[in-house]
Write a structure and sequence with these properties.
Keywords: DNA-binding, Phosphoprotein, Two-component regulatory system
CATH superfamily: Response regulator
Structural class: alpha/beta
Organism: uncultured Desulfobacterium sp
CATH architecture: 3-Layer(aba) Sandwich
GO molecular function: phosphorelay response regulator activity; transcription cis-regulatory region binding
Strand content: 15-25%
Distance between the termini: 17 Å
CATH topology: Rossmann fold
Shape: globular
Radius of gyration: 13 Å
Number of helices: 5
Helix content: 40-55%
Protein name: Response regulatory domain-containing protein
Number of strands: 5
Strand order of the largest sheet: 2-1-3-4-5
CATH class: Alpha Beta
GO cellular component, one term: cytosol
Order of helices and strands: EHEHEHEHEH
Amino acid sequence: MRILLVDDEEELVATLAERLAMRGIDADWVTNGEDAILKAETESYDLSVLDVKIPRISGINLKRELEKRNPHMKFIFMTGHGSEADYKAGSEEAGSEFYLIKPLDIRLLIEKINTALNSVGGSI
């Protein structure tokens, strides 16, 4: 399983990648949408964890771009901005069960990763 983490908070995604690696999960990370797209063009990922609000391209628009490159990729959204509008947009795009509020609980994230990767059908 390969995961791409995308958040403009470098310390957060670096720490998440490290904590996932300690649990046997291979995770790359980037801090912006452009780098995420470049990674997806050269690497294959099963799932991406996207911040809803990242500079220059929203997490929702980034999801759509990543899906063009890998239609089988699954997605989990996260946000530290708990506004109702952000929650509604993210949960509608990802499905409320694949939408997490920061700070993330690593056990819950892993549970959601497993659920997403075991779900049947197209993208989440």
